[in-house]
Amino acid sequence: MFGFDGEYRRRPVQNLGGTSQTSDRETIIRKAAEERLKRNQMRRENNGAIVLQSYTRSFIHRHRRKCLEREMFDEFLRSYRDKLMEEENLAFLLKRIVFFYNAKETRDEERLIEICQHILRSPARLLQNCVNEYVWLHRLKKLLDLCISQLAIAHGSQAIPLRMLETFTAEASIERYIENDKLILIYLDCIFRFLVERDYYFRLRRLLEQKCPPLDGETLHPPNHFSEAIFQLMLRPLLLANRSSFFSFGEIVYRSFSKHVLSSIYSEPIQYFIIPCLAECTEFPFEYLIKSLARWIPVEQAEEINKDNDPTSTFGANFSVTLSGKCRTSISQTKTKDFAKIFTCFLLHSLLILDRKHLKSLHAKSLLGDYIKIIGHVSPMILRLPKCSLKRISHHANDIEDSSTEESDDEERIYTNQRTLQAMDVVNTSSINTALLTESERQNLLKCVEMLNDNQRVQTIADNIENYLKDDGVLQGLCEICHNLMIYNKTAIFDYKLLYTLAFMPNFIRAVWFTLVAQSQQQGFNAPLILISKGVVPKVPNVSSFVSLLATFCMLFGRLLPTLHDIEFCDEKLLIEKPLQPTLHVRLMPFSLAEIVQLSKTLKEVSLGLVELAFPETRSTLNQHYRFVLGRSDSDDKRMKQQKLIWSNLLKVVVFVLNQIHTRDLRLGFCPESHWTVGRLDLPLDRPSDLPLTRGISSRTRGIRPFQPIRDFTREDFENGPPMSTKQIRSITILREIPFVVAFSKRVNILQGLVAADKMRIQGHLQAFLQGPSIMLTVRRTHLYEDAYDKLRPENEPDLRLKFRIQFVSSLGLDEAGIDGGGVFREFLSELIKTAFDPNRGFFMVTTDNKLYPNPNVGDLLVDFEKHYYFIGRILGKAIYENLLVELPLAEFFLTKLAGKYADVDIHQLASLDPELYKNLLYLKDYEGDVAELNLDFTVASSSLGQTQVLELKSQGQSISVTNSNRIEYLQLMADYKLNVQIRRHCVAFRKGLSNVLPVEWLYMFSNKELQILISGAEIPIDLEDLKRNCKYGGDYNPEHPSIVAFWCALESFDDMQKRQLLKFVTSCSRPPLLGFKDLDPPFFIQNAGDMERLPTASTCTNLLKLPPFKSVEQMREKLLYAIQSGVGFELS
Q: Where is the signal peptide (predicted)?
């Protein structure tokens, strides 16, 4: 601090030391800089001293002036005590008390009480003056403000200030002195505007918290008179704003009320008294509150966008702005902060309580849309709940992903899966920031989630949402609610009535999708749908709306699809139910087949883009110029990583619904050819072994996770080999989640490459020379299955991937001559599979179309049947492992169980098991009469060995009749029993055996039909040119030999069936290899049989055709047809 002695100019400072002769240039510059810093520091100190001195002088002067005014007030009060209500006298006192009043001064309290008492004796005169002259109105406003301050004094008088507030703010009391209603509204508008701008609601809230006694729960009765008065003081401005014609007044009142009462942290009086009383108050203007909040949403969103686009956030704190710029920034930040304080979890809770008596009237007043927008805008607060708050439903406890690759007893539980539940699984919710979540906030958010599931609220929205389908804001708000519930609870589609109800509203689902499409068309290349398809993060303003719309659409549509049978899915002629024609079917399918094709194409591109975003490269592939053009910044990437939970869920639900559409297309074939495959995929297909789809993949993916920044690898990460690259992770994700985008031939190449690498690791390179580890096996031809089952038990041969050396024993008990170079093993495996799957053996049954599936009643034949299915699964896995094609027509639903990630199949697969039952169940679903008349109950009859047993589909099912209300449950339970329950143990054992040889993860790349092709080959015409190019010849045969020329000429005259008979005659399989005859191992071989009198014969174990040298084409054709149609092979040798 500097004293002022009258000198206003700085005296020059002279340095008498002279200039140093030894100073260099750097020293001079440094000293000049130091002196400049000293001068700047001195200037700042002087300026600071001037400010402090000015403030001090002002304070001292005001204090002296107030003391003087107090003396004048007291003197005047003593002199004119009997004439205070005269205008001049009252004006004299009011002017001074509003100037010097200080709540900390005891005498000021007494002065205020005394003047208020005089005013209350005759309020009419003061009110008349306030209406006629603004200066009196201003004095009264200040006086009422002092009364509120007086109420806050702990031991001060409360009766008089409270009566002042009631007298001069209650419309009923004012009407006794002023008859003009318009003047009354103007008067109250001015009074409350002044008070509200001075934290009226904040101060009333503090008063209530101080004076209200403790409360144990909700109450509609005021705890004391003071609480009742405060409630009325809070309510009056709200009621006035609803009637006032001044728009700004309502904005001020409701913003302050929302900020300080509805949105602030709850106290007991607010939570248990004020909010319940407002909810039950019929006069409370809930509609005006909704209108106000709806108007503030765009303002807050615009402020958020401006904040994200603020250049200071990009270029750092050194970005210089002018003083006016700073002022504008300060005001903008104040508004944003103000709105941020309004849209809190407590506002969400307050709205869900206050709407009790207004839900039904909202739609009539066209406010339901605004209501949905507000709830949707605040609903992201739900995501602040910690993971421990998630409700775990008991019937979902075992919904875990099938993991057949793990050899554990937990395999039994994989058949309790639900496709929908698993697809909705999300990453750890603890990643959401909950550090600032208080216990009060947590409890209120849990109540909000519960209230969002209220029947009346859900029904109101469902009944009226059809009227808002063209309002993008309402759709966005409702999707926000659904999306946040989905993120919070992975079983939300089953736990919350809102989501479950919307899932069966096709018009809503259709509107959401076409809203997304319309946004994409309007925004062009900057549309989120297009940018994400290209692997680019959209700009921040578009992301939240896009994600909530797309995720909600996928979840709801994915829930609807399993409930539609194929007829409903395809039939576009189903009519919407009309009141006059209630018997017409309701069309639940939101889209036509043509729209589904385009929809699936878009979702396919989005899913590929999400995979690219989920696993980014170490360095961005976009340069800075490209980032600028697309509006992408580093802050967008950071925001996306912070919201990895939401993006991970989006990827899961998109993949979920896309897989459902693809599965439906496999059955119905409504998509064009090559619709699902994508040619631009950059997968390491040239080295399939670089895709480690093995049991140890988890250890190698530890360094990279979806939608998370890439971190440095540690020593632990390298223990199981080098961590996988981003390209490998992307490839594996695609092959696991959406493998159908890769061409089938490429996936077969990947499988063969993985098998070849595994063979080299297990069998070694010496197997080509009949050396190395192998399994020696001697089996009797007459007891092929029994010997193989006994000698290939897991206890005897734990690893069937080793090379087999087979020695056959003839029916005479003698060893057959010859060394197994591979052909004997192929014969052994082919014959073993045929006898194992033979329905006469009892392990498998045939459907009406002669397809094989496990025998449900095999338990009556064998107690340890699971061991046999485990063994049969191992030998089938060995056949696929050795690329051996076998004629094995498996039922479609059984193939789905083998190839799918999910063990259970749904009712749509029932047609492949029992078409008649499937038809009857569909008839029951659409039955228009009373289902109870059919006399059905929840039981099923099971026949085994001539005995019939009645089994219950659910507890006490025999006493529960099937009615119109529970018939859907009956259909599901019946289909589940037929497809899953009765063969559950069979399939578990079979899959475990299959995965013991061939990791089942490798089969996830294929659909059920593609798995059938892997096992038995493709049902395509035989390409003779391909066979001719890859055919080998023995003896004196060569491509130009006359007999060979005649052979090919004879084959060209065969029809397709005859060609297949020839192929089966030579190779034991009527279907060509998957990738052509170049992959046939051993290759197709023709050898001279010598004697022209004999018929052609074959050795199927070596794919050898023994062909006599017939000369003419006619003779060749005749002999070949006789041989291949006789149905025998070796017997003709």
A: none
398 and 543, same structural domain?
A: yes
Q: Which of the pair, 390 or 1005, is modelled with greater confidence?
A: 1005
Of 915, 843, 909, 901, whose CA–CA distance to 873 is shortest?
843
Q: Residue 813: which CATH number?
A: 3.90.1750.10
618 and 597 housed in the same domain: yes
DSSP string, 718-766: GTTSSPPPHHHHHHHHHHHH-GGGS-HHHHHHHHHHHHHHHHHHHH-GG
Closest CA to 535 of 429, 621, 468, 658: 621
Which residues form the domain of 136? 61-198
Residue at which a domain ends, from 149, 164, 198: 198
Please list the active-site residues: 1101
The pair of structure tokens assigned to 141 is 């406003």
- Asked whether residue 1003 falls in the same domain as residue 1040, the answer is no
At 777, which helix (H) or strand (E)?
Answer: strand 774-780
Same domain? 1068 vs 943: no
Q: Is residue 1083 part of a domain?
A: yes
> Residue 14: its pLDDT value, please?
66
The answer, yes or no, to whether residue 25 has pLDDT greater than 90, is no
Find out whether 400 and 632 touch, Cβ atoms under 8 Å: no
pLDDT of amino acid 318: 34
Asked which of 174, 198, 222 is the last residue of a domain, the reply is 198
pLDDT at residue 1043 above 80?
yes
Number of neighbours of residue 677 by Cβ within 10 angstroms: 15
pLDDT band at 708 (very low <50, low <70, confident <90, very high): low
- pLDDT computed for residue 491 by the predictor: 87
Measuring CA to CA, which residue among 188, 158, 163 is closest to residue 174? 188
SS3 419: helix
Which residues lie closer than 8 Å to 1070 by C-beta, 6 or more apart? 887, 1017, 1060, 1061, 1063, 1064
Cα dihedral 602, 604, 609, 611 sign: positive
Does residue 774 come out as left (phi exceeding 0), alpha (psi in the -120 to 50 range) or beta? beta
Q: What is the pLDDT of residue 623?
A: 52
State whether 1114 and 984 are in the same domain: no
In a domain, 1053, yes or no: yes
Q: How far apart are the first and last CA of the chain?
A: 122
d(CA 447, CA 453): 10
pLDDT tops 90 at residue 855? yes
Q: In the predicted model, is pLDDT for residue 1127 greater than 60?
A: no
The reply to whether 1098 falls in a domain is: yes
The string of pLDDT tens digits covering residues 214-268 is 988 889 999 999 999 999 999 999 999 888 777 788 889 999 999 999 999 999 9
Question: Residues 717, 576: one domain?
Answer: no
Nearest residue to 991 (alpha-carbon basis) of 1002, 982, 1000: 1000
Q: How confident is the prediction for the chain on average, in pLDDT?
A: 82
Cβ–Cβ < 8 Å for 453, 498? yes
Q: Which pair of structure tokens corresponds to residue 925? A: 């679903």
Q: Are residues 652 and 779 in the same domain?
A: no
Closest listed residue to residue 571, CA positions, set 600, 591, 599: 591
| Proportion of the chain above pLDDT 70, given as a percent | 81
pLDDT band for position 376 (50/70/90)?
Answer: very high
CATH number of the CATH domain containing 1043: 3.30.2410.10
Strands of 643-770, DSSP E? none
* Domain-located, residue 266: no
- Region 333-343: mean pLDDT is 60
User: Do 1028 and 1008 fall into the same domain?
Assistant: no
